[in-house]
Amino acid sequence: MPLTLYPAVDIKDGRAVRLTQGRADAETVYDVDPVAAAQRFADAGTEWLHVVDLDAAFTGEPRNRHLIADIVATTGCRVQASGGVRTVEDVEASLGYGAERVVIGTMALTDPDFVRDVLDRVGPRIAVGLDARGDVLQARGWTEEAGDLFEAIETFTAMGVPRFVYTDVAKDGMLQGPNVEMLTKVADATDAAVTASGGVSTLDDLRVLAGCHERVDAVIVGKALYAGAFTLDEALEVSR
Q1: What pLDDT does 63 receive?
Q2: What kind of fold does domain 4-239 have according to CATH?
């Protein structure tokens, strides 16, 4: 099955970076200009980008949200925005800057009713981020435990959440391959679409993800692209 590929542009202090296992102190800077990084992905033919405001995720201050507008205007790509969503107004601000979809992480896990409020206000242009170590959800930049993964999936599926972004925290940024077994369990537990995130290191990983479950229809790829494990051209060819 074709996969929609989302190259990741993670922004911290106005720079494109990648973190290892979500740790703020394990940062690698790949480009001083996130818009330039996004443009290179667009030039290779991607239709979507996953843009994360890491400053907002760690501090609650949305310092980089305005860059969504710059990225959309420059690249013409559709943007899935993430990081530091604390209020309905935060969601509306990202959509206002041109994001196609907003991923809600910590607020969804600590206040599930918040997701219902957002769905009422903006409809299906959201996804819920499920970042987990095993069955245990992780919140606030992966620094706090936030309940059981599968209980949350049941709750949000009943609300009508259209998409989950599942990240195995232990795999993120490690280039050791995705946790396909857990990803399949997540997809089995919902009728929503599922985006895989974390661990992709080879083109074979993409091939495996493409065939692992009918509801796993997208994948976020970050460090593997920045580190040169494969090119975006190659990844797009495989994902199609």
Answers
A1: 75
A2: TIM Barrel (3.20.20)
